Structures are given as C-alpha cells and as structure tokens.
Amino acid sequence: MNLTTTVPTSRPVRIDTARVSLNGDLSMPDDPIGLVVFVHGSGSSRFSQRNRRVADMLVHAQLATLLVDLLTEAEDRTDAVTAEFRFDIPLLAERTTGVVDWVTEAARMPSLPLGLFGASTGAGAALLAAAQQPQSIRAVVSRGGRPDLAEAALERVTAPTLLIVGGRDERVIEVNQRALERLSGPRELRIVPGATHLFEEPGALQDVARLATKWFVDHFH
Question: What CATH number corresponds to the domain at position 180?
C-alpha cells in the first residue's frame, strides 16, 4: 500500500442535490485509488473529529474522502432540538445517493471506485443507499452502526460490507450480528476489543481506521 507523506488540505464543496444544497469537505490525494463518502448520523456533521481522524488515515492510503453534512443548516438547528431528522433514514439515504450522483457527474470523477463509510444511524442510510445504487457503490464500512435501520433493504445490499463494533457495545453487537445474516454480498463483522460505542479508548479509533482502510483498498482493487 502506497502511503502519502502528508494529508492534503481539504477544500469546501457545495453539493446541489435532492432539492437542497449541502456543504462538504473534499480531500483529494495525488492519484487516488478511490473515493469514500462519509455518511454521518445521530446529530453529527462533517466536523466530527472521530470521522475526520478516520478520513485522514484513508487519505494516507491514497483514498479521496468526502465528508458531507446531509442536513441543511436550518434542518440541523431543528434537529438539535427535536432530533427529527437524524432518524429519517430514507431522507438521509436519498441525499447520500444524490451525493454519489454529484461525485460521478458534477464533480467529474466517474472513474473512481466509490465507497460509503457510515457511523451510528448513518450506517443505516449508507446501506440503504448502497441497495439503491448497486452499480455505483463498491464497498461499505459501518462504525458502531445501526444497520438494522436499513430494514428490508439489507437483503438487497450486494456491495462488500464491513461492520465494526466496539467489544463493550453489547446491544449494538447483537444488532450487527443479526444484520450480518441478512446482507447478500460479501460481509464481515469485526469487533474492537475493549472499545465502547464511540471508540474513545486509546487506540480504538486507530483500529477502526486501519480496518476500514484495508477493506476499501482491497475491494477498490
């Protein structure tokens, strides 16, 4: 695996899709081997430090990354009070598919293999989007995710899917074990020993990044 020596500076992008305009940050290393779109969940955003740390390691492995706010600024303010949008998986999936279309059309990057990295409830949206765009999505990774929120679409996910869960996140382990049986494509469940739901323990997030990097690189090739 070729590693870059520095992480390129991300640049802001504006994505017009699904009747809204979304903010994103795109990092593009030299000669990328693929691009990973981050699907945030549970009130998170493109400024999530956990996802940015994972994104930095992906960029070191020659993977471009796109961190996008799937909610508009007005929706985000409402969601902070009511939490009404963060569990609207069909809405988040619709906007994720719109972002994928933007990458392949408006951004003129149709030749790059595409992957989705979903965190928490965002994993459900990522898997629903992967079921809706089987020809576009090459691989999916879920971190501490709720794949069950994709509901019946799980059986239609053919993209290779890696589910990563903390060893002390017992309820989410059970949810992911059940989802693993329903996925149709290549899939794997990896448990990070000693980690809780947010992977805040020393070295836990690095393990997530390492597992995700290998999964994307292997399946993009």
Answer: 3.40.50.1820
Q: Give helix 122-132 / helix 89-104 axis angle, nearest 10°.
A: 60
Alpha-carbon 71 to chain mean position = 15
Query: Going residue by residue through the chain (221 aa), what tens digit of pLDDT does each one get?
Result: 444 445 566 899 999 987 899 999 999 999 999 999 999 876 667 777 888 999 999 999 999 999 999 988 888 888 888 888 878 999 999 999 999 999 988 656 668 999 999 999 999 999 999 999 999 999 999 999 999 999 999 999 999 999 999 999 999 999 999 999 999 999 999 999 999 999 999 999 999 999 999 999 999 98
Mind spelling out the 3-state secondary structure of 39-59? ECCCCCCCCCHHHHHHHHHHH
Q: What's the CA gap between 39 and 90, in Å, rounded?
A: 13
Number of domains in the chain: 1
**Taking CA 167 as the corner, what is the angle to CA 161 and CA 169, rounded to the nearest 5 degrees?**
90
Please give the residue range of the domain that contains residue 198.
Answer: 11-220
Task: Kindly state whether residue 43 falls inside one of the protein's structural domains.
Answer: yes
The answer to whether residue 206 is domain-embedded is yes
pTM over 0.70: yes
Domain assignment present for 4: no
Residue 86 Cα distances to 40, 45, 74, 143, 194, angstroms: 9, 11, 13, 16, 27
Q: Is residue 85 part of a domain?
A: yes
C-beta of residue 122 within 8 angstroms of C-beta of residue 39: yes
